[in-house]
Automatic annotation (TrEMBL):
<protein>
    <recommendedName>
        <fullName>2-amino-4-hydroxy-6-hydroxymethyldihydropteridine pyrophosphokinase</fullName>
        <ecNumber>2.7.6.3</ecNumber>
    </recommendedName>
</protein>
<comment type="similarity">
    <text>Belongs to the HPPK family.</text>
</comment>
<keyword id="KW-0067">ATP-binding</keyword>
<comment type="function">
    <text>Catalyzes the transfer of pyrophosphate from adenosine triphosphate (ATP) to 6-hydroxymethyl-7,8-dihydropterin, an enzymatic step in folate biosynthesis pathway.</text>
</comment>
<keyword id="KW-0808">Transferase</keyword>
<dbReference type="InterPro" id="IPR035907">
    <property type="entry name" value="Hppk_sf"/>
</dbReference>
<dbReference type="Pfam" id="PF01288">
    <property type="entry name" value="HPPK"/>
</dbReference>
<comment type="pathway">
    <text>Cofactor biosynthesis; tetrahydrofolate biosynthesis; 2-amino-4-hydroxy-6-hydroxymethyl-7,8-dihydropteridine diphosphate from 7,8-dihydroneopterin triphosphate: step 4/4.</text>
</comment>
<keyword id="KW-0289">Folate biosynthesis</keyword>
<keyword id="KW-0418">Kinase</keyword>
<dbReference type="InterPro" id="IPR000550">
    <property type="entry name" value="Hppk"/>
</dbReference>
<feature type="domain" description="7,8-dihydro-6-hydroxymethylpterin-pyrophosphokinase">
    <location>
        <begin position="10"/>
        <end position="161"/>
    </location>
</feature>
<keyword id="KW-0547">Nucleotide-binding</keyword>
Length: 194
């Protein structure tokens, strides 16, 4: 039986724990292992990518990847699991968009729009300066800024290139192509052997 992309979960993972990229790499590998131990079976794992910190100057470069998972958990249960994994791996939430030992973001889940279309659209349309100051009160699905972030879309293109945004209507590859070339050029494959 073929799985539908709409019946899966996409998780973005990043770490810029240190200027030593090997530490960030280890954090991501550990987080993927913990996902599988928490009923989030990895079906596909993207390549690992080196990306500049966002916003610029928020710390060392990141390593980012994306994981396509199969799970029976609800979106809220997954979010709780992701926060628990972050805590296990030493994440302390002090500064929004600051340096992170590990960052696990629920990007999409079973094609859900949450909490509702109007709220999600409001967050999608929110200007960047307000995004940096406000924190949503509810889980938003799909992630309201995924279409703006090459560091999410490039790894996501490895695991779900034809996933289609349920609000915007664009596929992962189309959203990636719509980004400025400069944003796409900042992303490079991470070589764990170097």
């Amino acid at each position: 039986m073929t799985r539908s992309i709409s019946n899966t979960t996409i998780i973005a993972i990043g770490s810029n724990t240190s200027k030593d990229m090997r530490k960030a790499h280890s954090q991501i590998v550990a987080s993927i292992d913990l996902l599988s131990r928490n009923d989030l079976k990895a079906l596909k794992i993207s390549e690992f990518y080196r990306t500049p910190a966002f916003p610029k100057g928020a710390g060392p470069d990141f390593i980012n990847c994306a994981v396509l998972c199969e799970t029976m958990r609800s979106a809220n249960q997954i979010l709780e699991t992701l926060h628990n994994i972050e805590k296990q791996l030493g994440r302390v939430r002090s500064l929004r968009w600051g340096q992170r030992s590990i960052d696990l973001d629920l990007i999409a889940h079973h094609g859900e729009i949450a909490p509702d279309l109007e709220t999600l659209q409001g967050w999608i349309d929110l200007p960047l300066d307000q995004q940096m100051q406000r924190t949503p009160e509810h889980l938003l699905l799909p992630h309201p800024r995924l279409q703006d972030r090459a560091f999410v879309l490039r790894p996501m293109a490895d695991i779900a290139p034809h996933w289609r945004h349920p609000v915007l209507g664009f596929s992962t590859l189309e959203m990636l192509a719509n980004l400025p070339q400069m944003d796409r050029d900042e992303i490079s494959l991470y070589d764990a052997s170097s």
